[in-house]
Write a structure and sequence with these properties.
The chain is of the alpha+beta class and 376 residues long. It is 20% helix and 27% strand. It folds into two domains: 232 residues, Rossmann fold, CATH 3.40.50; 132 residues, Jelly Rolls (Sandwich). It contains six helices and 20 strands. The strands form five sheets. A six-stranded mixed β-sheet has the order 1-20-19-4-2-3, sandwiched between helices. It has a five-stranded antiparallel β-sheet with strand order 6-9-16-11-12, with no helix packed on it. Strands 5-18-10-15 form a four-stranded antiparallel β-sheet. It starts with a strand and ends in a 13-residue tail after the last helix.
Length: 376
């Protein structure tokens, strides 16, 4: 069991009246698949910490990009009602989403064959996790549809976008102005996209008339075949962080500056909270060597074993940019903590170890009681 946090420890018990909001794959499902109903780790955490409520938005087979969709839009591939992040919420959040991305199989092919994570697949996971943490750390957002446009823009519609739509353009010198009010955190975050198999245009981002970032070199990402729907997601979030701003109103301008026919995209502007809620991120165990789940086979398990550390490293490096992030490794062992039937989901003992690790991480990571008390 281990946890990583950059918080200054303050002894308070604010968490005892705080709700817990949970996102992730089947480990976070309301009824455990290999544990006794009622013994899920989050039920144990709620009881031990006397938390006021728990809400799990976890859905079996989720991948990281789908958890980003859950918090940004909540309408994609069976997302639970209410999963869109509301920045007025107080309490704790928890994300558990590594196993399916480490398995990385193409569900649309009808076969459960694990695939090694390419550099593009790792980049897509990193960007999705960064997007998730940015949303969770926000207090409000301004949709691109609220902006004032100049030039030629078209509207793209999808359940994966904030508010269900984005703005996009291929026309040089077209721009959109979005007015957003920064909190004392002094940060506004522009949500745009990189698209697998495509090249983005060059984009200038200005604050109050001054260009602060020019983006001409975009990362290369792979499309992600989602397990919940079987569709391939090609639009991967790319967050442009505007920091060091004064509290108050600012005009953000996003402008296409090159003459190519390559698109740029604008989804929304997220307003960084002055007191973001704590964001727990769990590490996942490796599957057993036997069981009914395809992850346990001699062909798939070695690939998962190789993929998992790559994702763990991305979690570590990405979370380091978020002072409210807390990485917890419950230290589950095989096969004692994993159900013998499917060989991948935690049993009662595993759920207990997960809960114990989370409680320990919470106890030693309280950092701002103002962000933890239940809003009334």
């Amino acid at each position: 069991m281990s946890y990583t946090s950059s918080k200054t420890i303050q002894k308070n018990r604010a968490y005892e009246v705080s709700p817990l909001y949970i996102y992730g794959h089947s480990f976070t499902a309301a009824v455990g698949l290999q544990c006794t109903s009622g013994n899920e780790f989050f039920r144990r955490v709620q009881t031990h910490m006397a938390m006021s409520a728990i809400t799990t938005y976890g859905i079996s087979s989720s991948r990281m990009i789908e958890n980003y969709h859950d918090v940004i839009a909540a309408t994609f591939a069976g997302a639970s009602a209410g999963s869109t992040w509301n920045g007025t919420r107080k309490g704790w959040t928890l994300l558990d989403c590594v196993t399916n991305d480490a398995f990385n199989f193409d569900v649309s092919s009808g076969t459960a064959t694990a695939q090694a994570l390419t550099a593009g697949a790792q980049e897509a996971y990193k960007r999705a996790l960064d997007g998730y943490l940015t949303v969770i750390s926000s207090s409000d957002r301004v949709e691109s549809s609220a902006g004032t446009t100049s030039g030629t823009w078209t509207t793209g519609s999808s359940a994966t976008y904030s508010g269900g739509s984005i703005l996009r353009t291929i026309v040089q010198n077209s721009y959109v102005d979005i007015v957003a009010t920064a909190t004392a955190a002094g940060e506004l975050d522009v949500v745009t996209f990189v698209v697998a198999g495509a090249t983005n245009g060059t984009m200038d981002v200005s604050v109050d008339g001054t260009v602060v970032q020019t983006i001409s070199s975009w990362p290369t990402v792979d499309g992600v075949v989602t397990r919940r729907s079987g569709n391939t997601v090609t639009a991967i979030p790319y967050i442009v962080k505007l920091t060091g701003l004064s509290a108050g109103s600012h005009t953000i301008r996003v402008k296409k500056t090159d003459a190519t026919s390559n698109f740029i995209y604008v989804d929304c502007v997220l307003i960084k909270s002055a007191s973001p809620v704590p964001a727990i991120i769990l590490r996942d165990p490796l599957p057993n060597t036997t069981g009914s789940n395809g992850a346990t086979t001699s062909g798939n398990r070695p690939i998962i074993v190789s993929n998992m550390p790559l994702l763990d490293a991305l979690i570590t490096s990405t979370a380091a940019n978020y002072p409210n992030a807390i990485i917890i490794d419950p230290g589950l062992s095989n096969p004692a903590d994993i159900g013998v039937t499917d060989g991948i989901h935690p049993n009662d003992r595993g759920m207990r170890k997960m809960a114990d690790a989370i409680v320990a991480g919470i106890h030693d990571s309280i950092y701002d009681p103002d962000s933890l008390y239940l809003a009334v």
